[in-house]
Amino acid sequence: MVPTPDSSIPSFVAELVRAANEIERVTPSEVGKLLFRAITTVSDLREQVGIPGSGTGHDAIVGLNAVAKDIERQSSERMSAALLEAADLVRTLWVVLDSGVEITTIFRN
């Protein structure tokens, strides 16, 4: 049985996009908090739809985590791009979960 998606997800996506579009009004600390919240949300949604994280440099969460951990050194453009990337990840996973699609991953040696 696929869990019902959290109805607060669309408003969180809107919050991420708004912050990205108004980056001059958001402090780096606030951007970091939004990114860490997005990372947690993406991880939770991935788990719900059956998508394992790779934990490699190719995993978008790893890149977002790197930006969030060093947020004070990031340019406004990089912070905005990271927020938009996070919004896209959350939105895409929410759509998959909301659609009821079940994903099964098979690992072969």
Q: What do you see in this structure?
A:
With 109 residues, the chain is mostly helical. It has four helices and no strands. It is globular, with a radius of gyration of 15 Å. 25% of the residues are buried. The mean pLDDT is 88.
Write the topology of this structure.
Layout: H1 9-21, H2 28-49, H3 60-69, H4 76-99
Tell me the total number of β-strands. 0
Biggest sheet architecture: none
The amount of beta strand, in percent, is under 5%
Low-confidence stretches: none
**Coarse structural class:** mainly alpha
Measured between the Cα atoms of the first and last residue, the distance is 29 Å
Helix content: 55-70%
Order of helices and strands: HHHH
Total number of helices = 4
Inertia-based shape: globular
Mean pLDDT over all positions: 88
The Cα radius of gyration reads 15 Å
Label this structure with key terms.
109 residues; mainly alpha; 4 helices; 63% helix; globular
In summary, what is this structure?
63% of the residues lie in helices and 0% in strands.
